[in-house]
Amino acid sequence: MKTSLRYLIFIFSIAATVQISLKTSAKETQSRETSKAKTNSIMWRYDGNGNFPDIIPPKQWSSNKTILWKSTVDAGGYSSPIVVKDKVFVTAEMGSLICLDLTNGKTLWKKDLFSKESKDIPEDLSKRLMRGCGGDSKQSTPTPASNGEFVFYINAMGLCACYDLDGNQKWIQIIETAKEEEHFSSSPIFIKDQIILSWGCLLSLNAKDGSTLWKAAKAKPTHGTPTITKIAGDEIIVTPCGDIVKLADGEIICSGLFESLYTTPLIHNNILYMIDSESKAFEFPTKLTKNMKLKELWKTNLTGTVMASPSYKDGLIYTTENQRCILYVIDSKTGKILTSSKTLDETTKKEKTDPGIKIDGLIPAKYVYASPVLSEKYAYFFDDAGTTAVLELGPNYKPVGINKIDDALVGTPFFINDKIIIRGSETIYCIGEKNQ
């Protein structure tokens, strides 16, 4: 009897060990798959939605403590940096792509995609460089994108190129679908073997050779960048103009859901959020069908005209009215605005409650191109004078710190591990804790 009991205990112990091993293996596999998914598409604000998972960067910095390196580059447009493996990619006027070493900020290589005398542009393409730059536009507004193996960049002339991470050119060509230069700010999306552009219309390029895979001619362009998600396994693109397009072939499934000039659609689980002056939430159907209807869950109005692209965490949506630096924290289930401020009505002279709250330390500006980003614990907000306000995540306004660089802040920073890459007008900053 004792022998049988010992045998049973032995068997159960082996089973438990195997089960634990299987669970550990599953977790490791899931972690590897997640890691693979993360490197599949690296773009503006990491994934376009500005949520940097498992990142704990500094919340306060100063020149003598936390600026690890500064690297001077040519004057920049309004684009943002990205980090791929151990390399930082940024653009500069008039249309250059620059690769920096993440560890020390040294320039590893630079490609000129503007000058007709550029050695990086074939002679036949140089003769076709007709599109110029005017008004307040810049050549280098779009942010580069990568799939972890290659990096892609397009400038305001529609000249685009793909390089490996060591700077070897894979291909280069001109995209001529766009006519209005003011829409040359939408950043590309590099996903698997496709590059998605909102460039006069929505189109897909073959990442291997730059050939056009499809064009969705009726998908309207805006300043904003589209986003990608899935419905029942089918990958779709959602544009700021409210078009839903199949990633596989460019078929427009439905259109006219909303229209936003600047902000990127935000997607969490099965819910689509368009956060703008008129903000809406929609529930995706369980199946992708032509002319499908999305259930509208709520609608709410925000005050202001230039809304930043939003970020989501733990049931809350964070955005700002960029010109006035007004923070909105929104309940994702109801659309209720959770931040408010007391003001004096100029007509009645009575106190009133307005939605949103001014972020202390940020300076109102004519143009603000950075959108908020979230780490594990904090939300980061920016102005174009080089100021960053750090707030604790949650429904209430809880400032943590105000930080300043000696430069204009012209793009949305990129977070990597415990570091922040900030793009100033002529300087790239790497911020993190210095090793003692």
Q: Can you give a write-up of this model?
A:
It contains 2 helices and 34 strands. It has 436 residues and is mainly beta. The chain has one domain (42-431): Methylamine Dehydrogenase, Chain H (7 Propeller). Mean pLDDT is 84; it is low at 5-39.
Question: Which properties best describe this structure?
Answer:
436 residues, 10% helix, mainly beta, four-stranded antiparallel sheet, 34 strands, Methylamine Dehydrogenase, Chain H, 2 helices
Q: Report helical residue fraction.
A: under 10%
Give the overall shape.
globular
Question: What is the CATH homology-level superfamily?
Answer: YVTN repeat-like/Quinoprotein amine dehydrogenase
Uncertain segments: 5-39
The first-level CATH class is given as Mainly Beta
Mean pLDDT: 84
The structure class reads mainly beta
User: How many strands appear in the DSSP assignment?
Assistant: 34
Largest sheet: 4 strands, antiparallel
Assembly form of the protein: single chain
CATH architecture term? 7 Propeller
Kindly provide the radius of gyration, computed on alpha-carbon positions and rounded to a whole number of angstroms. 23 Å
Give the tally of structural domains: 1
CATH topology: the name is Methylamine Dehydrogenase, Chain H
- Give me the number of helical elements: 2
How far apart are the termini? Answer: 63 Å
Element layout with pairings:
Elements: H1 2-40, E1 67-72, E2 82-84, E3 87-92, E4 96-101, E5 107-112, H2 123-126, E6 145-146, E7 150-154, E8 159-164, E9 169-174, E10 189-191, E11 194-198, E12 202-206, E13 212-216, E14 227-231, E15 234-238, E16 244-246, E17 252-254, E18 266-268, E19 271-274, E20 278-283, E21 295-301, E22 311-313, E23 316-321, E24 326-331, E25 340-344, E26 351-355, E27 357-358, E28 373-374, E29 378-382, E30 387-392, E31 399-404, E32 414-416, E33 419-423, E34 427-431
Antiparallel strand pairs: 1-34, 2-3, 3-4, 4-5, 6-7, 7-8, 8-9, 10-11, 11-12, 12-13, 14-15, 15-16, 16-17, 18-19, 19-20, 20-21, 22-23, 23-24, 24-27, 25-26, 28-29, 29-30, 30-31, 32-33, 33-34
